[in-house]
Each structure stands twice: as structure tokens, then as C-alpha cells.
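Hi everyone, sorry if this is the wrong subforum. Our group has a chain we'd like a structural model of before ordering constructs, and none of us has done structure prediction before. Sequence below.
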Amino acid sequence: MLRTFIIFLVMIVTIIGPSAVIASIGYASIRALGRNPSAAPKILQAMIVALIFAMSIAIIALLILFQLFSGR
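Answer:
Right subforum, don't worry. Here is the predicted structure as C-alpha cells:
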């Protein structure tokens, strides 16, 4: 029971954390584009790099979770 709860809690954290980061990146980029539309290429490049980092952290966290709790 406790192990299932821990797995559920860690999966929630690994899902909500990157989701919040992706939402804040989207919100900030839309606000920046609204203020300065001519800077779109620079904003897009920074947004893509930040999204890649957020998704890689989520994937690594899920891989660690599956490695820790698989086979037991």
C-alpha cells in the first residue's frame, strides 16, 4: 500500500512539475511576443530550448522512477 502511494506521488510530481514549467514558458513567450513582435525568432529559439530542458527532466525522472520500482 505504501509503495503504491509513493509511486503515485512521484508520478504526480514528475507530471505536474514539467507541466507547470511548460505552461509558464508558453505564458511568458506569448507576453513577450505581445510586447515585441519583431523579436519573434529570438523568443522562439529560447522557448524551444527551455521546452527541451523541461521535457528531458520529465523523461529522466520517469526513467529513474521506473528503474527504481520495476521488478520488485
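For your construct planning: Residues 22-66 form one domain. The chain has two helices and no strands.
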